[in-house]
Amino acid sequence: MSEIMDWLGFGPSDLRAPLTGREQEMRDLEQALAEVVDARESRLVTVMGASGVGKSRLVHDFLTRLRKTKGMVLRTYRGSARDARDSYGVFSRVLRSRFGLVEGMGEQAAKDKVVKELALVLEDRKVGDVAYFLGQLIGLRFEGSPLTRAVSDDALESRLLRRTVFRSFLAADAQRGPLCLVFEDLHEAHDESLALLQFLLEHLDGPVLALCIARNELETRRDGWRSIRKERHRVIDLGPLGETDAASMMQALLAPCGEAPQPLVDAACQLAGGNPLLLEQMVRIFHDTGVLEEEDALSETPVWLVHLGKLETVRLPLTVEDAVQARVAALAPALRLLLEQAAAVGSVFWLGALTVLARLDSTTPELWSLQDDADIRKIRELLQELMDRDFVLRLPDSTFPGDEEYVFKHNLERERVAKLTSPSVSRRYHRLIADWLEHQSNTRSDEEYVAMLASHREAAGSMREAAMAYLDAGDVARSRYSPAKAIEHYARGLELLGDDEPRRRLEVYHHQGDVCQQLGKMEEALVSFRSMLSLAYRLNLFGKGGAAHNRIGRLHRETGVLDQAARHLGTGLALFEACNDERGIASSLDDIGKLHWLRGDYPLALEQMRRALTMRRQIGDRRSIALSLNNVGLVLQDSGEFKEALESFSQALKIRREIGDLLGVIITLNNLGTVAQDQGNHARALEVFEEALAVAREVGDRNKIALVLTNLGEAQRSMGQASEAVLSLTEAVTTCEDLNDRLGVAEALRALGMAYLEQNELVQARESISRAVDIFAAARSKVHLGSALRTLGEITAGGGWGREHASKARDYFQRSIAIFEEIGNELELARSLTSYADFLDRGELVDHIVEDSRVLRHRAEGIFLKLRNSSPTNHAS
Length: 877
Prior knowledge:
Layout (H helix, E strand, L loop, with lengths): L1 H4 L17 H17 L3 E7 L5 H13 L7 E6 L8 H11 L7 H13 L4 H15 L7 H6 L3 H20 L4 E6 L6 H13 L4 E7 L2 H5 L11 E6 L4 H11 L8 H11 L3 H13 L3 E3 L9 E3 L13 H10 L3 H13 L2 E3 H8 L15 H15 L3 E3 L10 E4 L2 H8 L4 H16 L8 H13 L3 H17 L3 H15 L4 H17 L3 H17 L3 H17 L3 H17 L3 H18 L2 H18 L2 H17 L3 H17 L3 H17 L3 H18 L2 H17 L3 H18 L2 H17 L3 H18 L2 H16 L8 H18 L2 H16 L8 H20 L8
Parallel strand pairs: 1-4, 1-5, 2-3, 3-4
Antiparallel strand pairs: 6-7, 8-10, 9-10
């Protein structure tokens, strides 16, 4: 009996049977944990099944067993996605549990606690950055650092860096002892939470056991979930109990009856169909309908009387929904009213909100005495009865300081109860709940509660207030780098707002377009920016119109529609000039310069970028100055003006080091390395790339790590270190694939093909470069495609496809040369000419004479000589 009673310690009304029929599943969990402990490697177990089948119960009993196992210390942190309005709600709960944050804790106390816990795991210099990024998931704002400020304007970079920081923290924390992370109700998780979780599961190392609990809908939302980390992943498909196990569970649930009558057991099992939750619900229904009666409610050991005759007259439920309806119908009016009001608040509710609702039609006393709390005491009594009847639970802490927080045990019951309230009364409830929520601390700074406020305003019929709250929720989501959730909130807010609040709509159109562009939703982004332009035009706002045209121009530039980009960027510049917006003018000039650079018009690109640099120096924004210097250096490098390019990069590097912009440092070091490569100074290139890689690994930015690894691999190959190059480039390919960076994958594959060619591994070389060409062609990147075709020609000429394919090699070289002539990239043109000349010198093409190669080589040498003449003897980085 004590084992039955021992479920969270709630007493006889919460009887549950011992776990039955799940022996194999329990062994699977135990085996996964043993592998985590023994091999000190991560393991993933996903428990899937229908509602009520016992998924959470299985994991709960597994963890309970561990707590009772002598010598087993497994730090366990849980999070649930159930009713999490926040984009990363499931992680917020896990991290709050890890850092020991209790609801109601003051913000500064919570931040101090996080920093203290991080300091126990990480080096002091990393604590600030990790706190900043993890704080975004918890809802705490930490002071930024030079690194975090460097990525603050790049939402994609910030998201990628945050997930890398999160993974690194978990890996470091696991080294202090095995971790168990439990993620429940994942079928309800937001897409951004699932994407972050999948990244963590795919890359977690060290002794970490991740337990994921979800209904089968998860597989329809995340295709390929079962294949995540397949060699370390177990999927437990939890089905209904068999007849014998279901009967055994029912006998255990009916233990207070003594020898339970078989008709009672059979009736319950027949209707439950092996669903453990429905079996438990059947016991409660038997109580509510008088089939079972508690002999003495105060007895320490419950004894139930069975009135079997009533079983024939009771309408038993056929489904879980029927069981819920029967349970609710059996409640006394006062209990049902309180449950209705709690359901109006949500799956989580507070005593404070119920107090406000209870006073909806009450008379205000002449003097408000704090001692007169009869209504609050009555609510507490009713809540206690609902807890006794297994409808709700009280949580140990409350989100709002000084309040009491409760939760519905079963969401189906909350949904059923909410439908009992009439529409007019429901609107009054939601209006009052929103008014109460508006006055709670931290509501406006937390995405989950701003969204909750918005939904209550909308349900109350207060559409303007709801719209503004949704837009605020979108801003909070955007500030936390949750673009998908921000799009959702913005769309709903704008729909409700209509044509009101033009100032706010201008801001939101800009932000909405920005987050759409981050997610690659280019058409949706264009619609948002055009809406911004339309409103700015009607209001005759030059600056806002300029910003809208600039964003439209950038979008066209990124998608390769360069003529349209030029029209919009030029118009944006004119509008900024009309209102003397110096920052806008400088930004427009820089954007126009980048457009000319893409078109291969390097002199015009330099002219515009240098004008932007001059203006930014006058404004005094050092970060923007460094950005302009870096952009100027890139154009100079492609123009073959190496001396000036190095000078520009060196100035940018100096500024970025002084302001602590580590990501900028990585970018500029990488650029300096590529210049050294272009000059043929491979030893210097290797040195600079190694420095850049060290900084990138320290920061943990995997995008930058992949970029530098690709260039490092090329430098290693040029230095005759082919085996080291293969290792670097293989890591680069893997990292880019993890990041879904297709162009990065292709560039690394192109270089990897060359490294394999150096080792005379022709099959691997052919496979690598073929994949690269396919990707570059699909992306329509001319510079990359030209380089890949040159490499393909070299591999084909080297025998990658057999000697009979010499004519194919010629075609690849000629196509490469034609591309670089078209875009005016002289350095790459000279490289392709040289490679083609080397091929012709082999004499494999009988229809080509030796003089052809001499002409090509002479032309290439002329280009290289011009480029060398522009290079300095040395430089300081």
